[in-house]
Amino acid sequence: MDITVREHDFKHGFIKSNSTFDGLNIDNSKNKKKIQKGFQILYVLLFCSVMCGLFYYVYENVWLQRDNEMNEILKNSEHLTIGFKVENAHDRILKTIKTHKLKNYIKESVNFLNSGLTKTNYLGSSNDNIELVDFQNIMFYGDAEVGDNQQPFTFILDTGSANLWVPSVKCTTAGCLTKHLYDSSKSRTYEKDGTKVEMNYVFSNCW
User: Fold this and answer.
1) How far is CA 17 from the centre of its chain?
2) Strand locations in the chain, DSSP E?
3) Which has the minimum average pLDDT: 37-51, 88-102, 155-169?
4) Does domain 85-117+132-206 bear CATH number 2.60.120.10?
5) Nearest to 153 by CA among 72, 82, 70, 67
6) What is the per-residue DSSP string for 85-106?
7) Residues with Cβ within 8 Å of residue 88, at least 6 apart in sequence
8) What positions does the domain Peptidase A1 occupy (predicted)?
9) Tens digit of pLDDT for each residue in 65-102?
10) SS3 (DSSP) at 140
11) Which of 139, 172, 148 is nearest to 73 (CA)?
12) In the chain, what are the domain boundaries?
């Protein structure tokens, strides 16, 4: 069987094929651009995810390192730490002097002297000592006992206050349930003086 191909048929067929190829090339080019755009978006999302993860790691482990370590100490401690303000007779005298109220100053001074607070030794013996732990130069704390039965507590020492405060067994809030509490009934040296106490609890990540 003989096959004869005419010249114009061949050219016509070639032209059809060429047009088809051009169409395919255009479609392939569009598909490639779509794929490239998809990969570019994927790269951007991946880069943002990596940078966010890196920033979070640095933020948690470098910038907040002190806060995290301090919070861990407070969380695992058996002792309650809380901000407080105590208004005693001596504080009232100083406040009276500042406001220049002579009548109140004399009254408070007499009450203070009659209370016997100036004759009582509250600091213990000269042999008592507390070994302080320096936490990154921002907090100093140490262990000490309160009462004649030596109830142990861990104190955060603050030079901004000369008052000593410990939580009582009468405290029923959630913060006291897991802490070591002071039981005044077990200490023979405990004396109730009726001092007014005002406590303000503040939690913050800023130091």
Assistant:
1) 73
2) 85-87, 133-135, 139-146, 151-157, 196-198
3) 88-102
4) no
5) 82
6) EEE-HHHHHHHHHHTT-HHHHH
7) 117, 163, 195
8) 140-207
9) 666 666 666 666 655 444 445 455 556 556 655 555 55
10) strand
11) 139
12) 28-79, 85-117+132-206
